[in-house]
Each structure stands twice: as structure tokens, then as C-alpha cells.
Design goal:
- There is one protein chain.
- With 383 residues, the protein is mostly helical.
- The protein has one domain: Growth Hormone, Chain: A (Up-down Bundle), CATH 1.20.1250.20.
- The protein has 18 helices and no strands.
- Helix 1 packs antiparallel against helix 2 and helix 13 packs antiparallel against helix 18.
- It is globular.
- The two termini are 35 Å apart.
- GO terms for molecular function: lactose binding; lactose:proton symporter activity.
- Keywords: Cell inner membrane, Cell membrane, Membrane, Transmembrane, Transmembrane helix, Transport.
- It is a multi-pass membrane protein.
């Protein structure tokens, strides 16, 4: 099995489902399940907390006893099982419980696939950016398809598309897989994997984690309210998908060149540029509440998300032993991609009720401190 091809295909299929979940799930709860924006935000925030717990603790624990492939198969089957329970659910309580269950299993697939990618990169077998760009392509295709399906069949198409996507992801995992990802950790491996406590002893890791916590958390308003915000600007549902995809297209362009573009830059320099781009992005949306500026601001996703993510992956492969990668990926997914977004979702929901644009401007309470922290720490810690 060609490792590069396997990783590209895995990223593509997973991020196809992510393109259904990330931009549309809050809107689906509002439109298809008749929840208020505040109730949907609360449910999604609790889901993000559950996601943080699963990715920080459940995934690293399982990675000590199961192969990467078995972990992905297990969580995909559980996610499919949980998604089916959404069909009959109508009350706030049932939707909350199912969302917590779904969030405990589905998003955990991300650190599992990313951990496998980091292991293959360390062995010199693959170019991360090239394969990760296929994930972004899958995301773009999903957003376009969903925008068309919802135009014909309404928001109910979102859930059914997720179920179909998870079925394809499960089928993919029964195909040939790179050898290193089939190996079950031995007793010696479990000793070497070390605890998370050992990871915190790496001097630069806590600082880098705080930086990505702030930079990735700053996307909370965009992820949860971007779809609804565009609806309030009276954008046709079909075009909403296209507009959302503009951000991912720029992300793809960056990922395709990331292995060579700015390859000599330290992770801290990439983080700094990402923070500046993110701050500019949210300020623009607040100052100019119209579709044209929102579209222009989408180009900055390559910096606010793409560059911050690549900077962390680069730090991971350069600074940590391979035994600690699952722990680091679990913490990154749990804190930077989940808990931070959960906290900012609560904040964003409150601000959105006051004025939609304030939810986006509020995200600079993360980006500005991140920039300050990078400037203070980069000289001393040399990361």
C-alpha cells in the first residue's frame, strides 16, 4: 500500500464528513430540529466539551493498547451508531444527550488520523501538506454537495449525508493500510509511550499548546455562526456553500505548498503570522457587515487556520519523540480544537444575540493575547 495515497484518501474521506459537520451542524439543529440559536449553541458547546474529554483522554489511552487502524474502525462504527439516533430525536434533552454521545466518538477520528500521519512523516514516508490538502478538497466537495442537497430537500439532507459519509469512511478502513498503522503496541511500547505528565516536561510544549488553544479557539464564531450569519445577510443557501468553500480553497492552496513554502521558518514565526491574519479576519467581518467583505475575509483562513495547524504539526515532528505523538495529538484536539471552541462558542452565542458581528469581533480576545505570548516567548524558548 502506498503510504502517501493511503493518507491522502483517509484525509479526503474523513474531511468530507467534517465538511458536513463543521459548517452545518448548528444550522441543522436550528432549522431541522426547530431549536433556537441559543439552545443549539448550548448543545454544540456541551458536545465540544465531550469531544475535548474524548480526544484528551480516551484516544491516548486506547492508542496504548490498539493499533491505529482498529481505533479508527471502532470510533467510526460508534459514530455511525450515534448518528442514527438523531433521526427520531426531537426534544432538547434527547438532542443534547445524542450530541454528547456523538461528540465523544466522531471527532476523535481526527487525532487518530493525524497521529497516523505524524508517524508516517517522522519515518520520511509522506509529505504531510500534500496529503492534508486532499482533506481540504474533501471538505470543499462536501460543502458544495450539501448546499445543493439542502436547496432541494431542506436541512434534513445534512444528517442523511453524514450517515452516508460515515459508511464510506468505515468501508475505507477495511482496505489495505500502511504497515506501521497496523501494529498493536507492545508492553515495551506502552512503557515508552509515557504518560501525559512526561509530555508537560518538554519546556516548549505548554507554551505552544496555549498558542494553538488561542488561535484555533478563535474560529468558534465562524464555525458555529458563519452559516447562520450568511443566511441573515440574505444569501441563497446554494451560494452559502460556495462562500464557505472559498476559505477551504485558500487552505488547500496553502497545504499543497506548505512542505516547501516558508519551510525554513520556525513554528513560532508561522504562529505569529497566523495570529496577525486571524485578527485582521475577524475585525474585517465586524467593521463591514456585508457579503463582499465576508468573501474577501475567507482568504485569511489560510493563515488563521491553515498556517497555525501546519506550525503545530511542524513543531510536533521536530520537537517530540514519536512515542509522545498520540498524547500530543490528543491534547491538541481536545484543548485547541475542542475545549477552546466550546468556551468561545458560549461567548460567541451571547455576543451573537446582541449583534451578529460582535460574535466575530469577540474572537480577538484570543488572537491578540496569542500574538503577545509568541513575541514574549519565542526568543527564550527557540521554538
Amino acid at each position: 500500500m502506498n503510504n502517501q495515497r493511503w493518507l491522502s484518501q483517509s484525509f479526503f474521506v474523513f474531511f468530507f464528513t467534517w465538511g458536513i459537520f463543521l459548517p452545518y451542524w448548528t444550522g441543522w439543529l436550528v432549522q431541522a430540529k426547530n431549536l433556537t440559536v441559543a439552545d443549539a449553541s448550548m448543545i454544540m458547546a456541551f458536545g465540544l466539551v465531550a469531544r475535548a474529554v474524548a480526544t484528551m483522554f480516551v484516544f491516548p489511552f486506547m492508542s496504548k493498547y490498539m493499533s491505529n487502524k482498529k481505533i479508527i474502525i471502532t470510533f467510526t462504527m460508534l459514530a455511525l451508531f450515534a448518528a442514527v439516533f438523531y433521526i427520531p430525536a426531537t426534544s432538547r434533552v434527547s438532542l443534547l444527550l445524542i450530541t454528547i454521545l456523538f461528540s465523544l466518538v466522531y471527532p476523535t477520528l481526527m487525532p487518530a488520523i493525524e497521529s497516523g500521519a505524524s508517524s508516517l512523516v517522522q519515518q520520511g514516508k509522506v509529505h504531510y501538506g500534500k496529503s492534508r490538502s486532499y482533506g481540504s478538497i474533501g471538505f470543499v466537495i462536501a460543502v458544495l454537495i450539501i448546499s445543493m442537497l439542502t436547496g432541494f430537500w431542506g436541512e434534513q439532507a445534512i444528517l442523511w449525508s453524514m450517515i452516508v459519509g460515515l459508511i464510506f469512511l468505515l468501508i475505507k478502513q477495511f482496505m489495505p493500510t500502511p504497515g506501521p498503522l497496523l501494529t498493536k503496541p507492545s508492553i515495551e511500547d506502552r512503557r515508552q509511550k509515557l504518560s501525559m505528565k512526561e509530555l508537560w516536561k518538554v519546556k516548549t510544549f505548554p507554551v505552544v499548546l496555549i498558542v494553538v488553544f488561542l488561535l484555533q479557539g478563535a474560529h468558534a464564531a465562524y464555525y458555529n455562526y458563519g452559516y447562520i450569519y450568511l443566511q441573515e445577510l440574505d444569501v441563497n443557501p446554494f451560494y452559502i456553500g460556495m462562500i464557505i468553500n472559498i476559505a477551504v480553497i485558500f487552505e488547500i492552496l496553502y497545504f499543497m505548498k506548505a512542505d516547501n513554502f516558508l519551510s525554513k521558518w520556525r513554528p513560532s514565526s508561522l504562529f505569529l503570522l497566523a495570529g496577525a491574519g486571524s485578527t485582521l479576519r475577524w475585525v474585517l467581518i465586524f467593521l463591514f457587515p456585508n457579503v463582499g467583505i465576508f468573501i474577501i475575509s475567507q482568504a485569511l483562513h489560510a493563515l488563521s487556520f491553515g498556517m497555525a495547524h501546519i506550525a503545530f504539526i511542524r513543531y510536533l515532528t521536530m520537537s517530540l519523540p514519536k512515542e509522545q505523538i498520540p498524547n500530543a495529538q490528543g491534547i491538541y484536539s481536545g484543548l485547541a480544537l475542542s475545549l477552546s471552541t466550546a468556551i468561545l462558542t458560549f461567548v460567541g452565542g451571547y455576543l451573537y444575540e446582541i449583534q451578529p458581528g460582535l460574535a466575530f469581533l469577540g474572537m480577538i480576545i484570543c488572537t491578540v493575547p496569542a500574538i503577545i505570548l509568541i513575541l514574549i516567548s519565542r526568543k527564550n524558548l527557540r521554538y
